[in-house]
Design goal:
The protein is 62% helix and 11% strand. By secondary structure, the chain is of the alpha/beta class. It has two domains: 1-68; 72-193, Response regulator (Rossmann fold), CATH 3.40.50.2300. Strands 2-1-3-4-5 form a five-stranded parallel beta sheet. The longest helix has 42 residues, at 177-218. It is elongated and about 60 Å long. The two termini are 36 Å apart.
Length: 219
């Protein structure tokens, strides 16, 4: 594995280490062997620290479940029976569901309060799901919003268009309940881990910034 230089490289190396620990402890040894240097060992120790922070955060979260709001999922579909069906399926997950019947209404709701996941129908009047997805992904405030597109389309060109718009996942109609719940739960776990990694990397960046300032003051 080639050495990555610079602060962005350091953050990437730490991220690799955290993911190694998160996925399987045995990956830790493989990671160190692949890097094979003191620099990697240092970053991996920071990764272990980050993972311990995550574990502590998870334990704290479990202790404070009563005061934590469940994740919010926004369902967008112009077909009311489809909205009701998706909402009924999602009752098996501890979450808050909101509904919008067109893309413009959905974007207004997201601007006021961003959900944790967006279930977005493709074929809608006024503005299509493709256009909504593209607009949301182009805005910094909503670029990282997980979007699962719900579609009856099966043509390869339609799938490629959805990918180009920035969709994170797909569900085909008719909706299978198990598939829906599995994909939503997976997306929520990824989002939670990503949020924790971002907080830890911001913390590390702050430490590096303070060290740079202290180093300049020493001269």
């Amino acid at each position: 594995m080639r050495e990555v230089r610079g602060k962005s490289g350091a953050a990437h190396l730490i991220l690799q280490g955290v993911l190694a620990i998160a996925l399987r402890p045995a990956f830790a040894e493989v990671f160190l062997k692949n890097e094979g240097c003191l620099r990697a060992t240092l970053f991996f120790r920071i990764a272990i620290f980050c993972w311990r922070v995550f574990s502590l955060d998870e334990r704290t979260t479990k202790m404070e479940d009563n005061g934590k709001m469940p994740p919010k999922i926004l369902i967008v579909d112009d077909n009311i029976p489809n909205l009701e069906l998706l909402q009924a399926y999602l009752e098996d997950i501890d979450c808050i569901t909101e509904q919008a019947t067109d893309g413009y209404q959905a974007m207004e709701m997201i601007e006021k309060s961003c959900p944790d996941i967006l279930l977005l129908d493709v074929m809608m009047p006024k503005i299509s799901g493709f256009e909504v997805c593209k607009k949301l992904k182009s805005e910094p405030a909503t670029a990282d919003l997980p979007i699962i597109m719900v579609t009856a389309l099966s043509e390869l060109g339609d799938i490629e268009r959805a990918i180009d718009c920035g969709a994170d996942d797909f569900l085909s109609k008719p909706i299978n309940k198990l598939e829906l719940l599995t994909r939503v739960k997976t997306m929520l776990r990824i989002k939670d881990l990503t949020d924790k990694l971002e907080r830890s990397l911001q913390y590390i960046s702050q430490i590096e910034g303070r060290r740079d300032i202290e180093g300049k003051l020493d001269f």
